[in-house]
Amino acid sequence: MTDFSISEVVRAVAAAAPDREALVHGDARDTYRQLLEQVDALAGVLHERGVGFRRQRAELENWESGQDHLALYLHNCPEYLLGMLGAYAARVAPFNVNYRYVAGELRHLLADSGARAIVYHSAFAPVLAEVRPDLPDLTVLLQVADDSGNALLPGAEWLADAMATSPGLPPVEPSPDDLYILYTGGTTGLPKGVLWRQGDIYPAALGGRRISTGEEYDAISAISANAERGGMRVLPSAPFMHGAAHWMALNAFHNGNTVVLPSDPTTFDPADFLDTIERERVTIALIVGDAFGRPLLDELDRQPRDLSSLSLLISGGAALSAPVKAALLDRLPSIAIMDGLGSSESGQQASQVTTVGRPITTGTFTPGTGMTILSEDLTRRLGPGDEEQGWLAQQGRVPLGYLGDPDKTARTFPTVDGIRYSVPGDRARLTADGLLELHGRDSVTINSGGEKIFAEEVEAAIAHHPAIQDVIVTGRPSPRWGQEVVAIVQFRPGCSATHDELLETCSAHLARYKFPKATIVVDQVLRSPAGKADYRWAKQLAVGDV
Known about the structure:
Layout: H1 6-16, E1 21-25, E2 28-31, H2 32-48, E3 69-73, H3 78-89, E4 93-96, H4 103-113, E5 117-121, H5 125-131, E6 140-144, E7 157-158, H6 159-164, E8 179-183, E9 193-197, H7 198-205, H8 220-228, E10 233-236, H9 243-254, E11 258-261, H10 270-280, E12 284-287, H11 289-302, E13 312-316, H12 322-331, E14 336-343, E15 347-354, E16 364-367, E17 371-374, E18 381-382, E19 390-395, E20 401-402, H13 406-412, E21 415-416, E22 419-422, E23 426-430, E24 436-441, E25 445-448, E26 451-454, H14 455-462, E27 468-478, E28 482-491, H15 499-506, E29 518-521, H16 535-542
Parallel strand pairs: 1-11, 3-4, 3-5, 5-6, 6-7, 10-11, 10-12, 12-13, 13-14, 28-29
Antiparallel strand pairs: 1-2, 8-9, 9-20, 14-15, 15-16, 16-24, 17-18, 17-19, 19-22, 19-23, 21-22, 23-24, 25-26, 27-28
């Protein structure tokens, strides 16, 4: 297999299509040539301030990093993607920061990562100032101006001013062994930094395989030729701190396409999202499950738009339920809807494409390159039609491990029969016809009366009720069952349903032992800005700790 660094790929694309728009945000329109100039300027800023490469990959354990780390503490904006690409060009490893974190959470993340540098929006300066005295290694602060009006922190620099005086591209040679770091969301536990070689993440999740065959690009000339044929316009709506969103953006860059950002980078606004598709003639757009899909339906009903340019709507990071898919196809019959399945620890693993006239399901996918199922005891691979419920796994292009955690690295990335796998924790099986049947994340499985019940399958069943706006399912202690299923629901405006009415809806989709024993109604189901369910909050609410 041929390996490429991300910098090498971006330079090849920029050379193949220098005058094509690379990034559009409002009135700002940067071509690939202009984007590369900014990338080189930021790389020079980092290198000049002493941030960069330290040790060769061969000298390190899988859970160790030989590079300095750059925290990206930003809303969606051009500077986020520039921060990633500029860091890679300087042989610095950037990573994502959840901008909703309070001071304690931010302190933990920046300390766990050992961040030497940070690029942050002014809006987050007060929280950063609170934790900065506890982070002596964080010495390079680059602040991005925004509407908050917050002043420059002491010792920090405005990013724009630093780039204006940059010495330009530093004299370093990026390597496929350089790191891509993605911190997990922390919705079921503390966030962990997943370490990938760039040579592995590029084909695993960032566009390094041919769409038609799944084969990896084996030469820069092939990457350049593909980029020359690019030109699609891609709209990632989720926050870039979430893997699905910046994966989509980097996929677009690596294939010579144009990344379009909504006008408002701070939140998902369905009207802004649809207006941007119409105005910029967007071809492909990303949403995150029902949390984005249901507000889109309401906005489509409120105001029609010319969305004829849109050919593919992708949902990644959270499930898009069958009722929402059906409603979206009813309003936009010319599009295809693709559910993407993947994780920080596996890359892209499987997909499901739905169009008008095809069966609409949730939880069934077509396997991608390297996807497999391992037995529950992690001793063998399971084949199509095997009734055992095993572990969803990935082989081939997989991460190195978790930053600073050898034990978790060994558990998540086991070797079976001489092959190293990634096993993030999802339970699954292969149907007789080779489709992936996904059951759910083991960490949010509910053991009730000796039966395993997956939160996601109960959520999908409840979502069929027309009154439901959003739902999260969790477990709580039960003297009779050990654990019992609890549904936390948010109703659509002006709608409601009783517990029994929700159970009646469940009866068409679930065995009775999986039914919720209780329903808790809330004004709003708590999710991350990326649309991911906050299962810690749900469990606390179910047991009365909120």
